[in-house]
Amino acid sequence: MSTFDFDLFVIGGGSGGVRAARMAAQRGARVALAETLGEEGLGGTCVNVGCIPKKLYSYAAHYHAAFSEAAGYGWELASPPRLDWATLKANRAREISRLNGVYDNLLRGSGVTVFHGFARIDSAHDITLATLHADGSPGHQTLTAANILIATGGTPHVPHFSGREHVITSNEVFDLEPFPQRLLIVGGGYIACEFASIFNGLGARVVQLYRGEQVLRGFDDEIRHFVATEMRKSGVDLRLNAGVVDIRKTADGLRAELEDGNVVLADAVLYATGRQPNVQGLGLDKVGVTQGAQGEVIVNGHYQTNVPSIWAVGDVTNRVQLTPVALGEAMVVVDQLFGPAAGRAARQMSYEYIPTAVFTHPNIGTVGLTEAQARERFGAVTVFRSEFKALRHTLSGSSERTLMKLVVDTASDRVVGLHMVGADAGEIVQGFAVAMKAGATKAVFDSTIGIHPTAAEEFVTMREPVRS
Hints:
The protein contains 12 helices and 21 strands. It is an alpha/beta fold. The protein has 3 domains: 212 residues, FAD/NAD(P)-binding domain (3-Layer(bba) Sandwich); 116 residues, 3-Layer(bba) Sandwich (FAD/NAD(P)-binding domain); 105 residues, FAD/NAD-linked reductase, C-terminal dimerisation domain (Enolase-like, domain 1), CATH 3.30.390. The strands form 5 sheets. Strands 1, 2, 3, 4, 5, 6 and 16 form a 7-stranded mixed beta sheet that branches. Strands 17-18-21-20-19 form a 5-stranded antiparallel beta sheet, with helices on both faces. A 4-stranded parallel beta sheet has the order 10-9-8-14, covered by helices on one side. Helix 3 runs antiparallel to helix 4 and helix 3 crosses helix 5. The longest helix is centred in the first third of the chain and has 25 residues.
């Protein structure tokens, strides 16, 4: 009989933490999970202030364009459409609340003990849980566990500068009041670009600033330049090699002075300048858990820290910050600690050919290597590229264009990079990711019959390389 209160104590109720807790409990382990935000926070960043609400707002923004495009198909609107911001916010909040309840039911239904409070690690097996009593007074509880899993995720990072107190992050942007008619966004990553597209589509005048030479660093260069052009065409005032000196509150709104001397007036300023691991107050220094330069928890290939009983998954390790990655990592930990499911081998996590999407307007979908990465790894590569106006827009009146690109290792003929900018890019690329994970060659792509008429068929009909 174990002398510990639990076999596994999970700190953090996001995607990775919930998956690990639930699956471990289903294997018969005694599991507890602590979430600081309580029931309303279960699901983590993705459910509460990330993937899910962002995609819902992206859908909302697309309707704006769809209304105008419908005229080319014979639809006449009786009156100009108008966004009811309060309705959108309320409906989003209701859906997020429903998902929070789903996560809570999944945990409790699996037999997980759920605590609502802040957990601090005191030793390799000891946790102090800080909670609030019903009367609001603080309380503390000491618990023990054979293993502890850190799954606390990440949090937005805002650099220090004059006027920092006036800005918001992606945590607050969903509930802005009133709707920002003028929105300044600082940053060039996927979060900044997505919110620039979303609020531009919802009707705000959006200025986006990025200090670099092009947005979306780390993505394929052609994709970066193409989507920047499309965003500008749709109305986003994207300014590169630009930064903020200070921000002041004035009678006419927030006044941002830029490094080039220009001034931008805005109703709200959103900083999307990166995220950092959420480790403050966890007690990692005291326990001796090794951390990286940004505070990230350092783990081995099985997500075990240098303290053998302490593990970590997801954004807190600052590897690949994607929800499905955290879910996969969680399953590796569960298999390591409690054995794989019946009839299955212990899982391993591969970081090659992870598909991802960016919900800009138009969307980006990508899997595998960029052209530059492929050249560095393989030397000789062959590139196939197609750019066109989608069939939908032959009548819609929109000037939006689609870009599709394949990068092939010339020696093996294997497709090692697949990239797209266009409608539903994420939906299209997911299926191709399976083929690439299986090692599909360009010959396999060429022998596959396309579905006509679709944009997706372009990936299996590109025959002439643009360069090699």
